[in-house]
Amino acid sequence: MSPPAKGGQFSVTIVRLAVDLVLQAGASMRGAAAGLALIASRLGLDLEMPSFGSVRSWLLRLGCYALTCALPMGEWVLLIDHTVQIGPCKLLVIVGCPLASLPLGERPMRQSDLHLVGMSLMEHSTHETVAAELEKAQQRVGKVRQIVSDNGSDLNGGVKLFQQNNADVAHGHDLAHVSANWLKQQRSHDTAWSEFIAKLAQAGAKVRQTSDAHLRPPTVRAKARFMNVASTLRFAGRVLRLLDTGKASGRVEENYAWLRQHREALKNWQDEQAVVQAALTHVRTHGINQDTPAKLDAEWSPLKLTPGTGASNLATRLRTAVRTEGAQAKPGERLVASTEVLESIFGKLKRLEGDYANDGFTGLTLALGAFLGEQTEEQTQKALEAVPKKEADHWVKKVLGTTVQMFRRLFVNTAKA
């Protein structure tokens, strides 16, 4: 077991184990502390184990180190996006990877491939404020080769301003968001789709408290619906196949028989989803360059797309989009066309915050940097020795100021007076 970091009480091995229980095993901070104490007790180990406060402090210090440490200089790819909670502010997060370290061609990017390059809480996200943060990010990494965003207007405007002084910077867009927007456009005037979603919700409500509750459909998300519609289409297809067998219960027949009337439309929607999924699977793993349109045609060939159908038209639009963006790649270069790994980081942050995610941004926001990179005991020791607790606390106070959670406490205390 390794010794404590300078000025610390607990072995770095214990620190790393506590942090990994939270970040890798999905334990809460209190759960990680309690779990370590239980293990020590059951195994008869004469070791003091950390409290919830210690685990939280380590996460913040590791995150603060990730945000302030020296990064390797060179050509970088940056992924940028906002995350929002209650309150007036957005959190702009910039993560990145040296272009030479991209794993594209072998596998999709993982959180361990990325570094936290910048993070800023913005009450007003404008083209100018986004461009200013990109300039700060470039100072940390040396040179930006590509910026990838989700096609949000403020992000697009900020990147364009940044490009005015950095003309050789490529700007890519997350293909998942692009595809979802096109699907939304296609379905917005499709009365069959609106009827399908409404009837599916009604059927789910009717079987919810019955023995057929396992046939309750997936919840259709109100936000980013067309980025998460695949499970709904798969479910409908399975129910339709069950109906075709003649083995469905009377209740299932009563509540889902209407699916037969949507058989052709469902097939068309599934074909469109197959086009999108094949494209996303390819660019996640291989990135994007001038050869991508031909590679996508090869991926789509088993689908036997019929000209003039929605799936064929969608493939044409996707082919045009990747040709335009792939043209920015130099010979032999792979660029990024997905920000889904950044979305997964936001999801992990919200899981870490738990119920606090409903109270606006808190100090745990800083822990985001602890999610990224390859974390070893040596790196953990270096981070803890470089960033004392007071420095992480200062960052939280300086950047977050008085949070929604603090305003609520002040309000409650005033009301009690």
Question: Quick recap of the structure?
Answer:
This protein has 417 residues and is of the alpha/beta class.
Please give a handful of descriptors for the protein shown:
single chain; 417 residues; alpha/beta; Nucleotidyltransferase, domain 5; 2 domains; five-stranded mixed beta sheet; globular
3D architecture notes:
The chain has 417 residues and is α/β, with parallel strands linked by helices. The protein folds into two domains: 66-174 and 339-415, Ribonuclease H-like superfamily/Ribonuclease H (Nucleotidyltransferase, domain 5, 2-Layer Sandwich), CATH 3.30.420; 175-337, no CATH class. The chain contains 16 helices and five strands. The protein has helices at 12-23, 29-42, 52-68, 127-141, 153-165, 175-187, 191-207, 230-245, 250-256, 263-286, 292-300, 310-326, 340-353, 377-386, 389-400, 404-416; strands at 74-84, 90-98, 115-122, 142-149, 170-173. A five-stranded mixed β-sheet has the order 3-2-1-4-5, with helices on both faces. It is globular, with a radius of gyration of 25 Å. The chain starts with 11 loop residues before the first helix and ends with a helix. The model has no long low-confidence stretch (mean pLDDT 90).
